[in-house]
Design brief:
Helices cover about 40% and strands about 20% of the residues. It is α/β, with parallel strands linked by helices. It has four domains: about 5-50 and about 150-320, 3-Layer(aba) Sandwich (Rossmann fold), CATH 3.40.50.1100; about 50-140, Rossmann fold; about 325-400, ACT domain (Alpha-Beta Plaits, 2-Layer Sandwich); about 415-500, Biosynthetic Threonine Deaminase, Domain 3 (Biosynthetic Threonine Deaminase, domain 3), CATH 3.40.1020.10. The strands form four sheets. The protein has a six-stranded mixed sheet with strand order 1-2-10-7-8-9, with helices on both faces. Strands 5-4-3-6 form a four-stranded parallel sheet, sandwiched between helices. A hairpin with a 6-residue loop joins strand 16 and strand 17.
């Protein structure tokens, strides 16, 4: 690796604004996965994220003339705060363009530091396009969130601190990847000083731009990115970060929403830190990697990259964490409609905790129940419960991995319709901003009758709707054309067993 990055990292004046964040032990997680786990606490920075390191290093290295014109950045939130703080400290005018889906906690924080905030578009790409338009008109200097050597070097100081704080053996360092600035910077330093240490990137499965870029040998652009982990919601990694990643990153691990939520809980249990989903990404990937490689007694370090999470999102995180940790299983069970059936059912479950029980009278013979069961032995116990219930004559469906069941059905089990022969059921997603739900309803109500509707604000950037629509066979072609022009991602759920059991 070129010496330039080592020199740039060593000389980055980030401690004008940043702290040397602690490297904390995670004793509970260490015992659970059989390895020594250490957490790099970037959530303790003044802007509650590592991003101020790169932002400040970039601003310091700008020519005076560029600083006088003012700077501008596109950001999903954390880079925005870093730029805003750095600009305030150096008395430079800063404009930040953020997606309209950005959590309010990040928007208000950027404004608190004195930056002018513009909300535009639904994702980073849209915000970035607006930045380029403003640069063309006003001549402001771009502060790129990741694809810049000075930004990468600033983030690389995290790696410098890790090696200084832990002089012993380190098997692997786990880093979240959005655009790739943190992973590239840490890898550039660590692989130069301690090349034997593995650098493992971690991405959300629905925002895996680095994973697919490395797989194809070129930078790819994702058609769509999931923004539950808004801090890493990037459709294309940087040119320079990709160049460094190809040479220096050993592997990229993908994690889903449930695994991120479980990692948030892991961090809270051991450090009392409340990480945002992208902040917990590295821990989630570390758990998967350690299990896959069957690691034991190794030192593993994960970076908690940020804690900028809206409080109301914690409700959704809490709900999904138990499933992500394999501590809860969800089942659809058919039981006899007679007195004592539930008591008998619970007796068969033994001492296991029933975490949820939903049911509504259907007929005189059978009842369909939606039940959550606490697990102490993860998926092994889940399989045993299924076997036990079936052995005792119950018809059982495992819904633990069923997204529709987790997002909607568990909140709306209420019986079945007797007149739904032409009902089609779809899940929809739309940007969660003022007026979005009304806009959705306006479009859906124009042509066909809505026979089922469930919406719940999960505190995330995207709203989720489960919708039943009565569509005669003669309208099928027209309805499919309507879905294509609606402009929202849609997922047909008419054949979903959760729907068939409880709502059809």
């Amino acid at each position: 690796m070129p010496q330039k990055y080592l020199n740039k990292i060593l000389n980055a004046p980030v401690y004008d604004v940043a702290i040397e964040s602690p490297l904390d032990a995670a004793p509970g997680l260490s015992v659970r996965i059989g390895n020594r786990v250490l957490i790099k606490r970037e959530d303790l920075q003044p802007v509650f994220s590592f991003k101020l390191r790169g932002a400040y290093n970039k601003l310091v290295n700008l020519p005076e003339a560029a600083r006088k014109k003012g700077v501008i950045a596109a950001s999903a939130g954390n880079h925005a705060q870093g730029v805003a703080l750095a600009a305030a400290r150096m008395k430079v005018s800063a404009t930040i363009v953020m997606p309209q889906t950005t959590p309010e906690i990040k928007v208000s924080a950027a404004r608190k530091w004195g930056a002018k905030v513009i909300l535009h578009g639904d994702d980073f790409a849209s915000a970035y396009a607006r930045v380029l338009e403003i640069i063309e008109k006003k001549g402001l200097t771009l502060m790129h969130p990741f694809d810049d050597p000075d930004v990468i070097a600033g983030q690389g100081t995290v790696g410098m601190e890790i090696l200084r704080q832990h002089m012993g053996d380190i098997h692997a360092i786990f880093l979240p990847i959005g655009g790739g600035g943190l992973a590239a910077g840490v890898a550039a330093y660590v692989k130069t000083i301690r090349p034997e240490i593995k650098i493992i990137g971690v991405e959300a499965v629905d925002s895996a731009s680095m994973y697919y870029s490395l797989k194809k040998g070129r930078r790819v652009v994702l058609d769509q990115v999931g923004i539950f982990a808004d801090g890493v919601a990037v459709a294309q990694v940087g040119k320079e970060t990709f160049r460094l990643a190809r040479k220096l990153i050993d592997e990229v691990v993908l994690v889903d929403v449930d695994q991120m939520c479980a990692a948030v809980k892991d961090l809270f249990d051991d450090t009392r830190a409340i990480a945002e989903p992208s902040g917990a990404l590295a821990v989630a990937g570390m758990k998967i990697y350690a299990a896959r490689k069957k690691l034991a007694d190794k030192t593993l370090i994960a970076v908690n990259s940020g804690a900028n999470v809206n409080f109301d999102r914690l409700r959704h995180i809490s709900e999904r964490a138990e499933i992500g940790e394999s501590r809860e299983a969800l089942f659809a069970v058919t039981i006899p409609e007679v007195k004592g059936s539930f008591r008998k059912f619970c007796r068969i479950l033994g001492k296991r905790s029933v975490t949820e029980f939903n049911y509504r009278y259907s007929d005189q013979a059978e009842a369909q129940i939606f039940v959550g069961v606490g697990l102490s032995e993860s998926d092994i116990e889940r399989a045993l419960i299924l076997k036990t219930l079936r052995k005792n004559g119950y018809t059982v469906r495992d819904l633990t991995e069923n997204d529709m069941a987790k997002l909607h059905i568990r909140h709306m089990v209420g019986g079945q319709s007797g007149n739904n022969g032409d009902e089609q059921v779809y899940r929809f997603e739309f940007p969660e901003r003022p007026g979005a739900l009304m806009n959705f309803l306006t479009h859906m109500g124009e042509r066909w009758n809505i026979s089922l509707f469930h919406y719940r604000n999960h505190g995330s950037a995207f709203g989720r709707v489960l919708c039943g629509v009565q569509v005669p066979d003669s309208d099928e072609s027209e309805f499919q054309s309507f879905l294509e022009t609606l402009g929202y991602p849609s997922f047909r759920e008419t054949e979903n067993p959760a729907y068939r059991t409880f709502l059809n």
